[in-house]
């Protein structure tokens, strides 16, 4: 009996040895079963334990894979976070560099227009608006003139402001009823700087707007063309 069972036990030993289990323990178990004449049960039990071992091994693999996947996901998240930070400034909406000095208006006298109102040609663009209409800085910059008498340019302008922008560009706002900034004030494009009026040599309530190449009278360029070249149509 035990002689007949030996080959089966040996096969089990070989199988288990192949599975990487300790041969000593398996041999002992196989012998014990064989001695009692229950060798048939031995392979089943051993196979079961081998399966358990294999399963444990597989689970360990799965656990390792899950761990690796989690690590990968974390890494991916980190990469995404880094990408997000890198992309953000590009995606952020840029504020417009130039805007209209008043929101609602009727265009009246335009640049270079002749007439009895001006000793020379008209030096700016007029926007007809009711007295008290918010006047906004057309671009970001620093206030270099602000006050009556055209801020120093002459009484014809009434209360006026001149803002210095980058690249040797200045903007001027005249005939104001109220000035809300001071010389040295930093302003943003679209920031309210005054209320429109009818001060100085003015034919009626309106904003007189100039773009200049210096802070002073006499250096004006076509403001409508300037705004248009900066993406603003009036
Ligand atoms: Zn004007």
From TrEMBL:
Q: Which residues form the M23ase beta-sheet core domain?
A: 121-223
Does the record's keyword annotation contain Ubl conjugation? Answer: no
Q: Name one Pfam family in it.
A: Peptidase_M23
The family database entries (InterPro entries) matched by this protein are listed as: Cell_wall_metabolism_enzyme, Dup_hybrid_motif, M23ase_b-sheet_dom
Keywords for this protein = Signal
Tell me the leader sequence span.
Answer: 1-34
Q: What is this protein called?
A: M23 family metallopeptidase
Show the taxonomic lineage.
Answer: Bacteria, Bacillati, Actinomycetota, Actinomycetes, Kitasatosporales
């Amino acid at each position: 009996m035990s002689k007949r069972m030996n080959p089966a036990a040996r096969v089990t030993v070989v199988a288990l040895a192949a599975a990487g289990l300790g041969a000593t323990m398996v041999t002992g178990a196989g012998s014990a079963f064989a001695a009692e004449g229950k060798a048939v049960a031995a392979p089943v039990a051993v196979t079961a334990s081998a399966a358990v071992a294999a399963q444990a091994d597989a689970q360990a693999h799965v656990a390792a894979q899950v761990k690796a996947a989690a690590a990968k996901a974390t890494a991916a998240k980190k990469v995404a976070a880094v990408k997000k930070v890198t992309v953000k400034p590009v995606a952020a909406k840029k504020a417009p560099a130039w805007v209209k000095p008043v929101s609602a208006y009727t265009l009246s006298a335009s640049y270079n227009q002749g007439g009895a109102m001006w000793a020379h040609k008209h030096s700016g663009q007029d926007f007809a608006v009711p007295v008290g209409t918010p006047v906004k800085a057309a671009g970001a910059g620093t206030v270099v003139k602000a006050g009556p008498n055209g801020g120093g340019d002459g009484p014809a302008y009434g209360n006026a402001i001149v803002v210095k922008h980058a690249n040797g560009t200045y903007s001027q706002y005249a005939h104001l009823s109220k000035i809300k900034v001071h010389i040295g004030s930093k302003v943003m494009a679209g920031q309210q700087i005054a209320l429109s009026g009818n001060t100085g040599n003015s034919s009626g309530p309106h904003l007189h707007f100039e773009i200049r190449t210096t802070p002073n009278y006499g250096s004006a360029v076509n403001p409508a063309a300037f705004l248009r070249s900066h993406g603003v149509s009036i």
